[in-house]
Amino acid sequence: MKKQVIISPNHGSFQQGFGQVNINIYWINENNQIHSHQEFCHFPQALELPNYYENWRQKYQALDKYQRGIINEDDETDEFISEAELMAEYIRDISECNKAFEYLRTRLNYWLNPVRQQLEKTLNIQPGDEINVVIHTENISSELTKQILPKLPWHWWDFFSENCFADVAVSFSNSEKFGSIYSEKMSALPRPKRVKILCILGDTTGIDVEADRRLLREISGAYCVFLRQPTRLEFFEFMTKERWDILFFSGHSETDKDSNTGLLYLNAEETLDIQEIREIIQAAINQYQGMKLAIFNSCDGLGLARQLADLDIAQIIVWREPVPDKIAQEFLKSFL
Predict the structure, then answer these.
(1) How many CB atoms lie within 10 A of CB 145?
(2) CATH node for 2-44+104-183
(3) Is residue 236 within 8 Å of residue 279, measured between CB atoms?
(4) Where are the domains of the chain?
(5) Whole-angstrom Cα distance, residue 113 to residue 37?
(6) How does 15-52 read in b/e, with b if 16+ C-beta sit within 10 Å?
(7) What is the distance between the terminal CA atoms of the chain, rounded to a whole angstrom?
């Protein structure tokens, strides 16, 4: 049975706790009828969670110096470091990063324990159930809490067992009514003859976006159009030229310090603030009956997702943190 759980913490913060958290549950029975149920729970204080996240983030990002297996020429060092010493340092830093993550995961699960117990009782999970959980963050008033909640490792919440197919997503949408509306809307859309993918291969500095192109070309039944390091004008023109089921971007991106918007590096000279193309994407969606999926296989993409959340795109996939080139390629391979 398919079930969707939408968890909406509203008024509250890590410092104060959340006195009332809305939980909306939707499920589809054997006759394809949609049912719903609402209940409430509370999240306690979690004063230390932002610190645990920040501690892990610093250790994770410090591993960037090992990405290509060499020491950056700009690093200030007075002595030669042997390969053995570098490997020992790498293993030590990996261990410290993993330890910091375990602390973060443990504290996250402790914090979520009340809602896990409540959901297990309400959902009566059976083997084979398909459960999708959505964390709705947009109505939170505390800016610190609002910024950190989407960055937490929700996929490591111990609510997700091996007995059911379960996944978790974060919603930046202003609407809380997407559960049943989403199901009805998607079922009404015509099935395309071929999946049409607009593939933007952006700035290639230090990364291999051609690996992504080779993977996309192998998709059976897909029609892919590739734009290699396009100009802004080329991107605008192709976006509105015809219907696209999937928008795919591979390259460099980043989120601004307030997590409000994201920047795409189209080529070595041009960048594009995702805010600049919101209306263009929405116009293309309206004209060609919807876009099913947007994938940004690039670093630090929460700002991209936040800007596109209110558009009529069914799902958006981004990386929450900087990601090594090889890991991004392995994700795409597995996902496709």
Answers:
(1) 20
(2) 3.30.420
(3) no
(4) 2-44+104-183, 49-71+82-101, 189-335
(5) 21
(6) eebbeebbbbbbbbeeeeebeeeeeebebeebeebbeb
(7) 24
| Domain 2-44+104-183 identical in fold to domain 189-335 | no
Kindly report each contact of residues 273-280 with a partner whose C-beta sits within 8 Å and lies 24 or more positions away, as own/partner.
Answer: 274/303, 274/304, 274/307, 274/308, 275/307, 277/235, 277/236, 277/239, 278/307, 278/308, 278/311, 280/236, 280/239, 280/240
Nearest to 278 by CA among 247, 300, 317: 247
Residue with tokens 């008024």: 11
321 CB-contact burial (10 Å; exposed 0-12 / middle 13-18 / buried 19+): middle
Reported residue count of the chain is 336
Question: Which phi and psi angles does 304 have, rounded to 5°?
Answer: -65, -50
pLDDT tens per residue, the chain (336 residues)?
A: 888 999 998 888 999 998 889 999 998 877 888 889 999 998 999 999 999 999 999 999 988 876 533 334 455 544 556 778 878 888 999 999 999 999 999 999 999 998 888 998 898 888 778 889 999 988 888 888 989 999 999 989 988 876 677 789 999 876 554 454 444 544 555 666 789 999 999 999 999 999 999 999 999 889 999 999 999 999 999 988 888 999 999 999 999 887 789 999 999 999 999 988 888 888 888 887 778 899 999 999 999 999 998 888 888 999 999 999 999 999 999 999
In the CATH scheme, what architecture does the domain 189-335 have?
A: 3-Layer(aba) Sandwich (3.40)
